[in-house]
Amino acid sequence: MNKPVNNITVLVLYYSRHGSTKKLADFIAQGIDSVPGCVARLRTVPAVSAVCEAVESTVPPDGAPYVELSDLVDCDGLALGSPTRFGNMASAMKYFWDGTIADWLSGSLNGKPACVFTSTGSLHGGQESTLLSMMIPLFHHGMLVMGLPYTLPALMSTASGGTPYGASHWSGADGKKPITDDSKQLAIALGARLATTALALRRHTNE
């Protein structure tokens, strides 16, 4: 379906193993949709398997559809999320970005705003380094990467996640810790900030 002429699309691309990163993605999408003229498009990536033959359907059993490279071309902004894997993004997300050489060569993401978010099992388990690791391919694609400002009160009071590098959530070792009000507010604020920036850039381009 073609997007409405007056609306801009902000892609929320995430990988979630146990659901915590997906919950953050939903709040970020909520923030995007709160900005008039902006629409969130939720997409995920398939898990990486050591099995050499195809064993999974091309359509996930539930949740967001799998991302296609055309989603990168169509979007006006990008929110990128992954759980923490030893202070780095998950292999499934890294695998996807390793396949975006054509978009890098064409510059399809150049000049578009972006942000990152993560969930981790331990409070000091590499939230910030994971966020920084996700920024690297975005910089290579020429994206305008943004974080969260300390003018947001929740960034000063949070004890459960949330950094100036992007939204985050401490899910606990069993992955069952609920997202706190502070983390929720920061995720929504990050989505709204991204959408507002994407909208301003679109208007500036059209002037």
Return the string of H and E elements.
EHEHEEHHEHEHEH
Number of domains: 1
Q: What's the tally of helices?
A: 7
What is the CATH homology-level superfamily?
Answer: Flavodoxin domain
The CATH topology is given as Rossmann fold
Q: Could you give a quick summary of the protein structure above?
A:
This protein has helices spanning 20-33, 69-74, 91-98, 101-106, 127-140, 153-157, 181-206, and strands at 8-14, 38-44, 77-85, 88-89, 113-120, 144-145, 167-170. The chain is α/β, with parallel strands linked by helices.
Characterize the structure shown.
By secondary structure, the chain is an alpha/beta fold. The chain has one domain: Rossmann fold (3-Layer(aba) Sandwich). The protein is 38% helix and 19% strand. It is built from seven helices and seven strands; from the N terminus they run βαβαββααβαβαβα. Strands 1, 2, 3, 4, 5, 6 and 7 form a seven-stranded mixed sheet that branches. A hairpin with a 2-residue loop joins strand 3 and strand 4. It is globular and about 45 Å long. The N terminus is likely disordered.
Layout of helices and strands:
Blueprint: E1 8-14, H1 20-33, E2 38-44, H2 69-74, E3 77-85, E4 88-89, H3 91-98, H4 101-106, E5 113-120, H5 127-140, E6 144-145, H6 153-157, E7 167-170, H7 181-206
Please tag this protein with its features:
207 residues; alpha/beta; Rossmann fold; 7-stranded mixed β-sheet; 7 strands; 38% helix; 19% strand; globular; disordered N terminus
